[in-house]
Design a protein that fits this description.
globular, Maltoporin, Chain A, mainly beta, single chain, about 60% strand
């Protein structure tokens, strides 16, 4: 519908929005090259969700927020706080590096970040999403990067913040707050969240328990030693108690406690506008338990325990040359320790990685290059070069052509190599497993030639050698195995339009294909969509009323054995009313979120159906 409106009524759109600002690509991003650059200068395919995007969305956690992003697929595991798997451009979940302020959350147990639902949403200033390999900047990021950037400390003596209280279906309640300010040379930001949720699905044949309890806290403090030296320290805690209920195909249920304590201390020095030095110590200690209980009697059957401890040091120098060019030189050192009940002893992997990234401005071109050398103590070394270019079309068309080629590397998690089978007859380790290596190519064109209309089209191809997938060994046990070569390829189309000052909308479509080059067969069952569609409409009135409707359609690559029921649009909506100066210096916002508006029965796997339609209502006080 949006495309038909744009086709038949372009002049009316232009006339209605003459005085309104174009969709802007001038915002600054950090994740693609690890130095600040304009979004319009990136040769990679980048998406940024701003604080306003997050607040206007009906999402309740980062996983739900990025599920609306074109090219990003999130396979939710039913209700609040449950683990979810994500994919970017047909990649495996463990190919996507998930960061909070540059702190990695991927574990050596699964290779992926298991806990998007447990990470903060209200704390976020923005979410930067790099679609495609980013190994020249971050190392093991064959599929992409999702960087959750938290809010900065305050700069006002008078504290500012917000308090939210909400209630939702399934006996769910949410209480959260954040506050920031400054006391002398010390800036601070504090937040907390408490969510208690009941089960979002009926159990089958038993009364197995399903509920979630989440507690999150985050704090950040900055100290200005002088005009050229600043220190910032942050600490976060996320804890969850998740009862997953009884699957339709089993008589057992699982209880999954999860805890993460993470943070960093960062020093920044900037003698002038041309040289910016940073040094940071980062840590992330995660504990994930999986208890299996009888679905009828709640009798304890077994437990699996994973502890993932990450410690890292980051050194970086960002140099500005010729007022336009940027050079970043850095070194990453990290040690990740895995202690697991599925291994006889703890294992660790030591990583050292120097890197350099460069932006050369030669109008109308931006030329980009990067190089990183990863030395993995368990899986060897890899040199990851990158070359990209952006051509800015002359005149006022505000159109760009992007091209990018990169070498990528993904080391498998330690558990796949050293796993000791605790379920006889089911799984086994693979001591000969090798890292995956890939060449990835992508190109795209973006245009704002028509005022208030943004169009983007991208294509990509990734050839992965020694690609890893699940297979059976000679004894019939499931293992992670290297295949000769997989090819991931596809395209993405995105459009956004501002029809008037109050009304905007978007439509996006993408297609992914993963092929085993040896057999020429399509690879399935990886938690990846083939065709998918996204769309939204947003109405924001001058008197504080706002209404937003988000829709998505996914066709997953699920095998017929899991009986997928996925080929339908799922709609979520949010209605809010902001009342300014309800009391002196206080704004009141009332909101209503509707999830699964059409009450569709939907799942990519029969064991994990989407919850039925439910409502969430609440109030937020801004002070």
């Amino acid at each position: 519908m949006l495309l038909l409106i744009l086709f038949f009524y372009p002049s009316e759109i232009r006339a209605a929005t003459t005085d309104y600002e174009n969709v802007s690509l001038s915002r600054i991003v950090l994740s693609p090259r690890r130095f600040p650059q304009k979004l319009s200068q990136t040769s990679e395919n980048i998406e940024v969700l701003t604080e306003e995007d997050i607040e206007s969305s009906p999402a309740t956690d980062p996983g739900e927020a990025i599920a609306y992003v074109p090219g990003v697929d999130v396979a939710a595991r039913t209700g609040f706080g449950h683990f979810s798997f994500l994919s970017i451009q047909g990649s495996n979940s463990y190919h996507v590096l998930v960061l909070v302020d540059g702190i990695p959350f991927n574990t050596q147990a699964s290779g992926q970040a298991d806990t998007l639902a447990a990470l903060p949403l209200g704390d976020l200033d923005r979410i930067e999403i790099v679609k495609g390999a980013a190994s020249s900047a971050w190392g093991y990021a064959l599929g992409g990067v999702i960087d959750l950037v938290t809010k900065d400390t305050g700069d006002s003596v008078i504290p500012h913040g917000q308090v939210t209280s909400a209630w939702a279906g399934f006996g769910t309640s949410l209480e959260s707050f954040d506050v920031k300010g400054r006391a002398g040379p010390i800036g601070y930001y504090l937040s907390g969240e408490y969510r208690d949720a009941g089960g979002t699905r009926a159990t089958t044949g038993t009364q197995g328990r399903e509920d979630t309890l989440q507690k999150k806290m985050f704090g950040k403090a900055s100290y200005l030693f002088s005009e050229i030296l600043k220190a910032t320290a942050s600490f976060g805690y996320s804890g969850a108690e998740v009862n997953e209920g009884v699957y339709s195909s089993a008589s057992e249920r699982t209880h999954v406690p999860y805890f993460a304590r993470y943070g960093q201390v960062r020093l920044e020095s900037e003698k002038d506008d041309r040289n910016h030095l940073e040094a940071a110590f980062k840590f992330n200690r995660q504990l994930i338990l999986t208890d299996t209980l009888d679905g009828t009697t709640d009798e304890f059957l077994s437990t699996v325990r994973h502890q993932n401890h990450y410690y890292g040091v980051e050194l970086k120098d960002i140099i500005t040359l010729r007022d336009h060019d940027i050079l970043a030189v850095g070194y990453d050192i990290s040690d990740t320790i895995l202690k697991s009940s599925q291994m006889h002893q703890s294992r660790s992997v030591l990583l050292g990685a120097p890197y350099v990234n460069y932006l050369l401005n030669l109008e109308p071109f931006d030329l980009l290059g990067g190089l990183r050398y990863d030395r993995n103590g368990e899986f060897g070394s890899q040199l990851n070069p990158n070359a990209g270019a952006v051509y800015h079309f002359p005149g006022k068309s505000r159109s760009r052509l992007r091209m990018n080629a990169t070498r990528a590397f993904s080391a498998p998690p330690l558990l796949w190599k050293y796993f000791e089978d605790v379920v006889p007859g089911l799984t086994a380790n693979n001591p000969n497993i090798k890292p995956e290596r890939a060449w990835e190519y992508e190109a795209g064109i973006e245009s704002e030639a028509v005022p208030n209309l943004f169009l983007k089209f991208s294509v990509y191809r990734s050839d992965i050698s020694d690609a890893i997938n699940t297979a059976r060994n000679n004894q019939g046990l499931l293992i992670k195995k290297n295949f000769e070569k997989f090819r991931q390829q596809g395209f993405e189309f995105e459009s956004r339009a501002q029809f008037s000052k109050e009304f905007s909308g978007s439509f996006a479509a993408d297609f992914n294909d993963v092929e085993d080059r040896a057999t020429r067969l399509t690879v399935t069952g990886r938690g990846v969509t083939r065709p998918s569609f996204r769309g939204d409409v947003d109405y924001e009135a001058p008197f504080g009323f706002r209404m937003r409707l988000e829709g998505r359609y996914n066709r997953w690559d699920s095998p017929t054995s899991v009986q997928p029921n996925d080929r339908k649009f799922i709609f979520d909506g949010r209605i809010s009313q902001k009342l300014k100066n309800t009391a002196k210096g206080i704004d009141l916002t009332c909101f209503l979120n509707v999830h699964n508006l059409t009450n569709s029965k939907y799942w990519m796997d029969r064991d994990y159906p989407l919850p039925q339609r439910y409502f969430e209502a609440g109030v937020t006080l801004d002070f």
